[in-house]
Amino acid sequence: MRLRLVALALLAAGCAHRKPLPKELPMTLTLEPYREGLKTMRVGLASKAYTFLFDTGAGVTVISREVAKAIGCEPWGSIVGQRMHGEQVELKRCDRVVAGIDTYMRELPEVGVLDVMSFLPADWPKVDGVVALSAIAPKTATLDWRADKVVLETADTLSQRAAKAIVPMRVARSGSGVGVDVFVAVTGKKGPLWFLVDSASTGPVLLAKHAAEVLGLSAPEGDVTLAFSQGVAVTLKAAVDEKLIYDGVLGVSALEKVTLSFDFKAQNAWVDVP
Length: 274
Known about the structure:
Strand order of the largest sheet: 1-11-10-19-20-12-13-14-18-15-17-16
CATH superfamily of the largest domain: Acid Proteases
Strand content: 35-45%
Shape: globular
Number of helices: 5
CATH topology of the largest domain: Cathepsin D, subunit A, domain 1
CATH architecture of the largest domain: Beta Barrel
Structural class: mainly beta
Distance between the termini: 67 Å
Order of helices and strands: HEEEEEHEEEEEEHEEEEHEEEHEE
Radius of gyration: 22 Å
Number of domains: 2
C-alpha cells in the first residue's frame, strides 16, 4: 500500500510540473502575382522549389510530367474529372507525394499528372503544376486575394471569424474522389444558388442562364448583386454562360472584392466584404 501511495504522489508531482502543450499558430501561405489576376505558390518537392498555379477550382492538385520524372514517379492509373462546361478530363496519377507548400508540409495521397502549360498562353511564364484545395483541406483556410495570402486557421483564430454570419457551403469530391471543390451559397428568390469558387477563372462572375434570371440579369452582361448572408452582399460584373454546368462561378473579379474562409469539416464558410 505504501509503495502505491508513493507512486501516486510521484505521478501527481509530474502532472503538476508538466508544461502545457505549445499553442497552435496560424500559418500563412504566400501568393505571388502571375498574369491577369492569377496567382502562384512556391512548392517544394524532393528538395527542389517549383512554381505552381493556385487554382481553387481545379479540384485535384497537379504536377507536370517533368516534375513527376524529377521526383521519381512513373505516372499510372486514372483520375477523371470535369471542367465547368462539362468536358471530361482524364489524368494519370502519382501517389504519396510529399510537398512543402510554402511553409506547410504534407503528404498528398494522390496528385494528377498534366502539362499545365498546354492550358495557358504560350508566352506566359512557366508553371510546374497546380495547387488545388485538395492540398489544403481539411485545414480551415482563409483566402485573402488582395493581401496575397492564404491563412491556415487555428481553433482560436477560427473562433474570431465564426462570430460572423455563416454562409452555407458545399464540398464536392471531384476527380474520382480525390479532388476538393467548394461551392458557396448566394441568396436566390426561391432558394440558394451554388457558386463554385474558382481562383483561375478570369473575367466577370459567370452565371448559368437560369441563375441570371433569378438574379435579375436580362442582358448577356451586366451588374448583379450577390447576397451571401444577412448584411453581406457585393455588386459585381457578371456574364451569362449558357454552357455552364453550375449555377455560377466566383472567379478572380469576386476574390478581389471579398475575403472567404472555409471550414471543410463543418462545411461552413464566411464572407467578408471590406
